[in-house]
Design goal:
Layout lengths: L1 H12 L5 E5 L15 H14 L3 E6 L6 H14 L5 E5 L6 H11 L3 E2 L15 H8 L7 H17 L20
Parallel strand pairs: 1-2, 2-3, 3-4
Helix pairs in contact: 2-3, 3-4, 4-5
Length: 180
């Protein structure tokens, strides 16, 4: 938090809205006594950010390590500790677990969960927004039919750029990320 203090305080002083980010790594559910990134680590870090003046907390899972169990634990405990602070959850679909983790986060109290339009989702992008919307059912405020119109458009755009796509997609999703 030392490196974030000046920026957070300056943004707050100028009337800005500060969404401070907690980068997720490891496994918050691990019972290994040597686990540096346990629940206490994340709760203490979030507490420091809120004390500095953060208006919202983001969980940034840059490697797609969150599992539904870890997401539920982390989000529910942050929600208990900070009932009035918005929680924003972001992941990448590296291991293919993103939709389940975003659903778990929404169920556990996250105010915002990120997804990518279906045709641009998965792999190193965010999880499939259409699948998240469908999984949440009536608990979301997104019209799946309207989303499908947008998806059709972006799917056609992506096809136009297909010659520039990375061709090594077959090995892109892998649960081996949990071991690295």
């Amino acid at each position: 938090t030392d490196n974030m203090e000046l920026g957070i305080k300056a943004a707050v002083a100028s009337g800005g809205f500060v969404e401070a980010t907690i980068c997720y790594t490891g496994d918050v559910t691990s019972t290994d006594p040597n686990n540096k990134y346990d629940l206490k680590y994340y709760l203490d870090f979030a507490n420091d950010l809120v004390k500095l003046g953060a208006h919202a907390l983001a969980i940034k899972d840059m490697a797609g390590l969150l599992t539904p169990k870890a997401t539920t634990l982390l989000v529910s405990e942050l929600r208990k500790a900070f009932p009035d602070i918005p929680i924003h959850l972001h992941t990448h679909d590296t291991a293919g677990m993103g939709v389940a983790s975003m659903f778990a986060g929404a169920e556990a109290g996250a105010d915002i969960v990120d997804g990518a339009i279906d045709s641009m989702s998965g792999l190193s992008s965010q999880p499939c927004l259409g699948a998240i919307v469908a999984a949440l059912g009536e608990k979301n405020n997104v019209d799946l039919d309207a989303l499908n119109v947008l998806n059709d458009y972006w799917e056609s755009v992506r096809q136009q750029y297909s010659p520039f796509e990375v061709q090594a997609l077959s090995a892109a999703i892998g649960s081996n990320v949990y071991k690295h």
